[in-house]
Design goal:
This protein has helices spanning about 15-30, 40-50, 50-60, 70-75, 85-100, 115-125, 145-155, 170-175, 195, 205-210, 215-220, 225-230, 230-245; strands at about 5, 10-15, 35, 60-65, 105-110, 130-135, 160-165, 185-190. The two termini are about 30 Å apart. By secondary structure, the chain is an alpha/beta fold. It binds uridine-5'-diphosphate. The site of uridine-5'-diphosphate has 14 residues, from α9.
Length: about 250
Amino acid sequence: MAEKINVRGVYFDNVTMDEAAAMLIERARAGVQTSLFTPNSEIVQMCIDNPEMYDIIGKGDVIIPDGIGVVKAAKILKTPLKERVAGFDTGKRIIAASKDEGLKIFFLGGKPGIAEQAAEKMQEEYPGSIFVGTNDGYFKKEGAESDAVIAKVNESGADVLFVCLGAPTQEKWINENRDKMPGVKLFLALGGSLDGYSGNVKRAPQFFIKHNLEWFYRLACQPSRIGRMMKLPKFYFGTWIYKMKNKK
Ligand code: UDP
């Protein structure tokens, strides 16, 4: 297991993207059931505001910093993380490994039709990758509808389940149901990634990613995100205040 770094109460694995992908593939090979959670600063701030969220997010077996805000906060706290590890790209690494590792993939989440489209696009991008099923994300997250989704996943024989229902719904659903899917080795909680894989939402151009401005690009494309994004400055300045208060 990788070293864990505490950022405002969430314990992140201190890994590079390569190390994260290798660790997940290694665990899948060994048949160790593993959940991957990918909190950004918005989610960490959600934990700070609602402490019961720490339990939900903290149950991830592997937790990577999906956002530059978390990496910056770790630096402010003088416990630096190696790099930002975007969930979107980590998911692609696993898809890329599907062929050689014989990992069967199931896409769960997004509006009707998105998961199928995402699987088609990924099949083209990664020839030989193995997709065994898809389901949209608009079902009741408990009771009969949820059980039907679980049965579908089990029947598909999937080794890797992408769970893209948005946070914290996806993390909660994984925590509550992973035991009912013993064949699944990797549960990847990847938010809006299927929208990206399907081509329906464009990833920021490299320039924005390189200059740590992906958040700005997303805001410019979807101004309705402003409410959610106000958590970012709250998190950033809150971390400075936290640091000053806890100075040794
Ligand atoms: N979604 C879903 N089921 C739901 C609610 C949301 O499948 O009940 C999907 C939604 O269609 C979108 C994703 O979850 O594809 C959430 O995307 P967003 O970018 O808001 O999530 P984030 O990555 O920021 O958590």
